[in-house]
Amino acid sequence: RALSLSLSPPPFCYHLHHLRMNACAAACSSSLLHTLVSPYLHGLKHPSLSITNLGFHEEPTSCLRRAPRCLWLCRGHDAARVAVTEEYKPSVGQKFPLDDVIEAQQFDRDLLSRIFEVAQQMEVVEKDSCRAHILKGYLMATLFYEPSTRTRLSFESAMKRLGGEVLTTENAREFSSAAKGETLEDTIRTVEGYSDIIVLRHFENGAAKQAAEAATIPVINAGDGPGQHPTQALLDVYTIRREIGHLDGIVVGLVGDLANGRTVRSLAYLLAKYNNIKIYFVAPDVVKMKDDIKDYLTLKNVEWEESADLMEVASKCDVVYQTRIQRERFGDRINLYNEARGKYIVDKKVMHVLQKHAVIMHPLPRLDEISLEVDADPRAAYFRQAKNGLYLRMALLKLLLLGW
């Protein structure tokens, strides 16, 4: 890796950024490190610079899984010191509380609020991203076993906006060693050798948890079959807060494919963190919300109700969250898919009864469940919602790799 130097005012501190150390670094001799680093220091031609002492600064072992060691090069002069460290490296005590992002249940209200604060800061970073070096020297691997546009591109854009780099495979199910029969665990153990964080989308429920158990670097679940999509739920809640202004006391209508929609499942888990929430479920009979979510909401004292009348529900809601009927989850049951598709459509009639402050959201892609005529209405928030995904994912990458 390339090394860079920066000089700060006395006491002088010369940083050699992005020198990534692994467990083998501890065995490296002082003389070798002196040989590696001295030419860069001597190149500064500073008259008082010399190295008289060299050694390791060890971090607590609890931080070693996700954070590389720092090397400290100390010289005897009282007014100066030289450090080999990583740029923007958080100090001990600033570690993000999660090693991986696998499911919505991992988050509580306080953590959500703090993440949203960082996401809002990322809006500023994104506007000047050509000069952002927060994750310079880090590599993100995106492994997508299912098609994706927004999730994959927003993660890759987020990493690049922060100064990092991306390794990607768009269709890992066909164009990776998975096609040869390689297990997910073996793929993860291999890919983690090339990267610092893995973003995984998989067709099987539970695959993200399986990957995280095999990995020694952070894993982010970008959707696992009909299971969960936690980063989508995070950006959804972030969007609701920005659009409505608050999260307690809101009424939300979840519409469409609630049985197979991992986005609505994760969103329901997060909404349950807030007070006085009411959720309406509006879905064709064949794709109604599953009992595990209903039972969870009941356990958390969240009021919920099933309805077949989208117009009535829309008139009561602060947020109507529409989803598409997912053809890929029906297999050969084409007749059931055709029965469900097109039953609930957000059009001008729905917008007419929608409250003035309310919004329409959609995780996208859409088919015909939101009419194109709705796009011009300022209450159509789904493209703003997609943009918020960039900021939220920038925040998560920064927090998982560097801490607060």
What brief labels describe this structure?
globular, 5-stranded parallel beta sheet, single chain, 12 helices, disordered N terminus, alpha/beta, 404 residues, 4-stranded mixed beta sheet
Write up what this structure looks like:
The protein has 404 residues and is of the alpha/beta class. The chain contains twelve helices and 13 strands. Strand 3 and strand 4 (80-84) form a beta hairpin. The protein is globular and about 50 Å long. The model is unreliable at 1-93 (pLDDT under 50).
What's a concise summary of this model?
It contains twelve helices and 13 strands. It is α/β, with parallel strands linked by helices.
Query: What structural class do the secondary elements suggest?
Result: alpha/beta
The coarse silhouette is globular
Please report the total strand number as a whole number.
13
**What amount of the residues lies in strands?**
15-25%
Taking the alpha carbons of the first and last residues, their distance comes to: 25 Å
Strand order of the largest sheet: 11-10-9-12-13
Radius of gyration: 25 Å
